[in-house]
Design a protein that fits this description.
6-stranded mixed beta barrel; 21% strand; alpha+beta
Length: 382
Amino acid sequence: MTQRANQSRAPVRAHGYSIAELLVVLAIIVLMIALSIPAYRALHRSVTETSSQVNLQQALTVASAFAERSAPGDDVVAAFTYGFDHRVQAIIMKRVGTLVDQVGTSSVLVERDVFVPVSELDPVEFDQGWWIFGMASEDTIQQQEVGTFNANGSPVANPPMSGWYDGNRYNSAIRNWLFPETHFSGQDDGNLGRDRQTFVVRFEGATGRRRVDALGTILLVLPVESDAFRNTQPWDDDEIRLDNAANIEATVRLALHDKQLFPDTVSGQADLRRILGDIATDTVLARPVTQLAIVDARRAVSELGALRRNRETDCFYKLSTGDPPTPEIDTGLFPSLGSAFAVTGILNEWIEHNNASLPNSEFSARMFTVEVADGTAAEIFP
């Protein structure tokens, strides 16, 4: 009976989807993806913006706290760099001594504090596509260096310019929002350091308070990776070689204080400046600032009318073809402006929301002032 029943059943035919049905399902999936992309982008931007603010606050708080635990005179800075990986970093650095340095190419001298990275603290890294700017008040770019003296110790009545940033890129007569110029110059010679500069926030040793009285230029020891010049004097001495030093702090302290390595002679001190002075490729000239800005690179390009970001640097600088290479604004990205002055000028207005003709989304650029008491970043609203 069972066998007959089974034999009498009609065979079941498999039912498949028609091409029309498949196309409808595919169209729905594509539509859902298209609708979700803007939401995802908005979410991603919100996350990275929050991350940038957290990172900025973290860098300042850590620098202030480390300074508070340090001895009087052992100041600490949060130094901002822009590397070959196209990311801004905040590096916590501490003062290890003072160098009698040469001001530019003149014979005028000045004492500059020397800072090295704090080895036990990792750099604070910002997401790619988010930039940090430091505000330089009027007349601080190419400002006359303070506290200068001649070789005989007598003060200089009309000192030369400090060499911090360049009047060919930024108009020194106005406020300027500066970008870290730490990796746009040559590295094949040991004496190309005068084209490396950035800004820092400086905190007082033992108190952790932001310094309001230390306005002079300082030296940051941030060795380059190139070894092209390290087989010649004075860079060929393994005791003071910075690029592969096991302990940069110990190496710099040795160079500053060991008179057998660098005696108090004209040639000895000249060699020391080639290792640690402004001229040295392994150092960066810096000055303290009190205001910082976080900028969304994508929106900056769009709202400033730039064609794009430079493909080699991923920002508005380009790698110079000069000999030696020097930091240079890529004016070709701004065909309607034409000059570096015009580019940095309109960038200043855009960050500060001072140009009604420029589109500026609410969170494209956010400005902060660093509080004196505890180093916290308080937002400035235009």
